[in-house]
């Protein structure tokens, strides 16, 4: 079936299309109702189906002749450890660890936070939760205790699974100390914690609260998979929104399994037994979907990498992995290859490796800038596939569909909508834009299986954040256009979300933190373009009358504050002290205009502006700092 035929069927007959794809999943009870609505009127898939995601991803393969196949290669240049785990071994590890959790009272519907570095035990912990019908919430290890505490208070976990430490380039990150601090900060306290002790830094355990991973499994009886409803939550993954409170994206079991399994062939052209690698982190959606669930649901081998694209030990790291594990499809964020390009612009290290196993190279997480696209295409000699997606969707909204019908790529485009996603460009009144014209990128409802079911504990926020702007559409928060050939171009966020080194962060949250500084009267944070990390946050700050600190001290203090509250990954360093900020007459800072100035784009001066002179003034201050020099009012 051609792409066009598959796509049209998915949009015109979604129930028929997805009922066929659902047949690929080992259900305990096959769904008879393919699409329905929940109590809040949200579309839900496979309503009366029952399954267990861990069974479909692991046990099913053991029962069907893949027990001795490698399920996971673990490769950790930062510790020098490599491991190969077969499906059978993975099943035993998961069942035993799940037994340990169950013995301590974890069961169906309980939330479990996982705060771990990139070790294979992180996958075991996630799948053990899935096995029990418990709901995991993985928190990225780069987040500071405050961020972890916010998630603890929202998810109210029965247990937290963590490790004594993580290892970044030449530094040990004390996870246990951060975990203790977060639990101290949080109002909700977990019943217990499980700690994986790593030799690089052992953690002191708190009697009666903390259990050592090894001792927990030593005394545990393996347990079987629990049947859950297709619509029961598999996990919560927090993502940055426009405020300081992250949104808990809820993913269900059934739709997720069906969509991810389908995507492995349709998008990534992967077959059972082949090797897939996503160089990301289990703390992000790419890690959830394409390090853990999708490769295993498809009976592939996944590579878990505790390292960086560069300096572990050098910028040939990705080429080495592709050769060593005979990776067929490799997936990472553009920023990772920009880091490689910076250190090895001519790709000389690639000459030391045989990467002929790789058939396609996939990039996502942020816009793939055309120079990096061209550089990669020339270097690797296989299709370089930019694909666009979000934590909320859980899989690619637009991509070159390499397993259906590959098309010629266009630099700067994520190619065509994935079957199931009715992507449309709307103007601010909700009318469809003509081809080639930019607007708000929306998805006509129903979204396909695998997309978020709700915001955890806050169905109202789900409605107001995503569904209420345009009736019948999901708002992606991205701006962009579709060209005459149907290619989707995503040009950037239209809200207060920025993307720093492939990490999604909220400028609204940074503003809240900066505003808490004694010397700050008002502030706004914008993302500015950065050659390596895509974007970097910059604060525009008005100091309080009578504040006597100098600008450099204030800048250092604000950088330290953001690092303490969000974490080093926020990369907040630059603060510009200004006399005033452009505002509306009702006192709202014109953030959209500031973003346009920073991006060097033209903008309309709104009739509601309080003082039009504030605009050239701020343009000139920003130009003095080499920010958005091309920005101009029209
Ligand atoms: N735990 C603790 N700290 C972490 C961390 C983690 N998991 N990940 C990053 N950090 C820290 C870094 O050590 C660094 O700290 P520092 O300021 O003290 O040096 C800071 O956060 C910023 O990290 P990063 O933005 O990653 O910069 P870097 O210079 O260390 O590395 C890249 C640059 C491009 C190599 C790296 O960002 C990268 O590999 N990015 C890919 C991101 C990715 O895979 N995203 C997933 C979406 S697909
Ligand atoms: P996250 O939820 O962390 O995956 O971030 C999602 C956001 O990253 C999207 O809304 C986009 O703004 C951006 N993004 C992800 N992939 C792409 C891509 N291929 N092209 C352009 N932007 C992207």
TrEMBL record:
Domain AMP-dependent synthetase/ligase positions: 65-446
Domain AMP-binding enzyme C-terminal: from-to ranges: 509-588
SUPFAM superfamilies associated with the record: Acetyl-CoA synthetase-like
CC terms in the record's Gene Ontology section: intracellular organelle lumen
Domain Acetyl-coenzyme A synthetase N-terminal intervals: 3-57
InterPro entries: ACAS_N (IPR032387), AMP-bd_C (IPR025110), AMP-bd_C_sf (IPR045851), AMP-binding_CS (IPR020845), AMP-dep_synth/lig_dom (IPR000873), ANL_N_sf (IPR042099)
Top-level division of the source organism's lineage: Bacteria
Gene3D superfamilies (UniProt xref): 3.30.300.30, N-terminal domain of ligase-like
Transmembrane residue ranges: none
One Pfam assignment: ACAS_N
Molecular function via GO: propionate-CoA ligase activity
UniProt similarity note: Belongs to the ATP-dependent AMP-binding enzyme family.
Protein name: Propionyl-CoA synthetase
